[in-house]
């Protein structure tokens, strides 16, 4: 089979949560470029609108939707709107996320709660809504959860974030197991360090150079580094993959 056929996503309708942010836009962009219809769902409607407009100006089909993944009514409304405008969602990229930088001993309870609300509860609620619809329509689908290399590697001052991403890893495997019989594949992408708004506090000043220096490949990730894995998991090329994790980190997690 030709690669263009194997990795074909032109029939897919993709909903990307956190779709206005750095990694969400990059992943939506490669899918849209290859013919998928994409919905960028974000709590920050302005960034999602700007990203969708930029994709549309390149000839893609893209819409923006306001969505707070902590709000179940908004989740249902977002899926309803995307179905009405683009068709049934066949690929969900569960990407919305927040991070923090606090010493564990003084981490505010509210920060811990919010990180869990968005990164864990929100991701679960969106996956649940996607799966309910995929099961109802009977065509299966692909759910791609965005975790992090920090789901396995502890570093200082990100206890809540790392714990939340470890939960996403286990959630991926649990959902993959339960939903395989419905032909719903649930997989995980684990990015290393990418320069986005989320990592701004860690990478400001000399931080980016220090982090790049710690990377075996000598640099931070950029959006294009995610393209291959996203195409694999969203297309028929990954049709027998479920419960898997793909690490994209230039080797950061295996050592210096
Ligand atoms: N940047 C990295 O180095 C890196 C590394 C590993 C994992 N990740 C993960 O990738 C994902 C995307 O991160 P990013 O780096 O693009 O960050 P980002 O801050 O650029 O994008 C995150 C997006 O999520 C949105 N968002 C936040 N809370 C939300 C909510 N409650 N409901 C809906 N949308 C919400 C934000 O508005 C933002 O547009 C996150 O899950 C993050 O944990 C990022």
TrEMBL record:
Domain of life the protein comes from: Bacteria
Record-listed E.C. numbers: 1.1.1.125
Entry-linked Pfam families: adh_short_C2 (PF13561)
Entry-linked InterPro entries: NAD(P)-bd_dom_sf, Sc_DH/Rdtase_CS, SDR_fam
GO molecular function: 2-deoxy-D-gluconate 3-dehydrogenase activity
Root EC class: oxidoreductase
This protein's UniProt keywords: Oxidoreductase
Family per record: Belongs to the short-chain dehydrogenases/reductases (SDR) family.
PANTHER family listed in its UniProt record: 5-KETO-D-GLUCONATE 5-REDUCTASE (PTHR43669), ALCOHOL DEHYDROGENASE, PUTATIVE (AFU_ORTHOLOGUE AFUA_3G03445)-RELATED (PTHR43669:SF3)
Name the record gives this protein: Dehydrogenase with different specificity
